[in-house]
Specification:
- This protein is an alpha+beta fold and 409 residues long.
- The chain folds into three domains: 97 residues, no CATH class; 138 residues, Ribonuclease H-like superfamily/Ribonuclease H (Nucleotidyltransferase, domain 5), CATH 3.30.420.10; 91 residues, no CATH class.
- It is 39% helix and 16% strand.
- Strand 3 and strand 4 form a beta hairpin.
- Helix 2 packs across helix 9, helix 3 crosses helix 4 and helix 11 packs parallel to helix 12.
- The longest helix has 25 residues.
Amino acid sequence: MPVYLAAARNATCSSEGCLCRDRVPCYPSDLSDEQWAVLEPLAREVMRELVRVQGRAMVHDLRAVCDAVAYVVRNGIEWRALPVDFPPWGSVYAFYQRWNACALPERLAGRLRGLLRERRGRNREPSACVIDSQMVKCADTVPKSTSGYHGGKKVTGRGRHVVVDTEGWLLALVVVAASASDKAGAKLLLIRLFDAFGTLRLMRADTGYNGRPLEKYARLFGITVEVVARTSPHSFQVLRRRWVVERTFGWLMRYRRLARDYERRPEHHKAMVWWATVFIMTKRLARYETGQPDPPRWAGERTRPAQQAALSTGSKPDVRVGGRLKNRPLLVLQGPARLEPEFFLDCLPGPLVDRERVGLAVGLVKRAHKLEVESLPQRVLGGERVQPPDKLTVLVEDQAAVHQHLDAL
């Protein structure tokens, strides 16, 4: 029964007492006219593709229904607590449940992601991605059969395992119990990535995804796992490309429905994440279409952090380079015996093509034979000091670093 009876008498919606076609956007979560102009054609196109049998036309306004879903996801309220200027909560939830079963938000996110990548001068299909997981506490509405305890984070709830592209846009998502390991979630994500994308070749991850079993499993799908580790565990560091997925988690946590898992079924929480991603992408694409500048940060301009000294004892953690665990930034090469190019091939970075790898390996051999071992200073490698005549050290991080080091020898 409508609350505002006088307004309900003049409502233009065919549903009795519904004010959805006469409402004016007034909530912070509502889509603006520019954002709706971006989302509406994509939403209607995807809906036409998903319709199997033509039935009765939609009664409620599509924009009002999308605003109602955004209101629930952004403010974290119950479905029954929707304001009266939206369609009835039962109709909104039926739309939400029906289109989630057809993967409507995932398809919408895919269309928006392709447009956003083209706006940034990239290909529509990504070739590199970043993987990570996030543990979320559960409410009392979540059954124990779909939740678990994470010993590392000391959290009882569910885990969100996500894969994003280099721009931070969501590619795949898996929601499992928090007791499941990162590697188990990664295997499920690899299956979804293989079904949706055929261009992925590189996956960056943290040390939780280290190990040869996962590396072999990813190699079956043609994907190389590169583990980016911290060089100092007790200081702040912006890790190479890993910060992208952390920023994505920050975007999602602004939506209060995702700050805690209230859903009884994991697929419902997964749908909430995809709807939040659709609204985030829509706002960003509308900003690009209208030429609006980036909104100012609440705390003002960010200052670059000063260079911090490492607090560790000098030991270098293991990172994965070219499919094998090596020390970084110093790569230890045995010597001073005669070196062959084949010895250097497995030590060079993985993303290089074969011709570049062979050329760099031959150059390293030529430079290594001309190097005077006695002139090398002592190095701290793996926590112990070694004498220069016993080993040769060559700096190998990426192609530019290799060329720069060769020129300096």
